[in-house]
Design brief:
Blueprint (H helix, E strand, L loop, with lengths): L1 H36 L22 H4 L2 H4 L15
Length: about 80
């Protein structure tokens, strides 16, 4: 009976130590992911960066050549007056 008792005590000790190591490992992973995914302190200081001023995008008309800018507008034809 003492051999069975010794094996049972060793089995319980192995299960407890495995659970403790697993909990420690999970805790380390949570801390790592928290540091990796949390916002840095630079992104949290909005007082010095507000309001954000950015340059406006250039207008499309300013980028076109001058010959394309002065094109005549397209007129619509009256479809009811056409012959079939």
């Amino acid at each position: 009976m003492s051999a069975f008792r010794t094996i049972a005590i060793l089995g319980v000790a192995v299960v407890i130590s495995t659970a403790a190591y697993s909990a420690h490992f999970v805790g380390q992973q949570i801390l790592y992911l928290h540091h990796k995914l949390s916002a840095s302190t630079e992104n949290q200081s909005f007082a010095t960066q507000w309001p954000l001023v950015e340059a406006a995008l250039p207008k499309l008309e300013d980028q076109l050549p001058s010959s394309l800018q002065k094109a005549t507008p397209v007129s619509l034809n009256n479809l009811g007056s056409e012959k079939r």
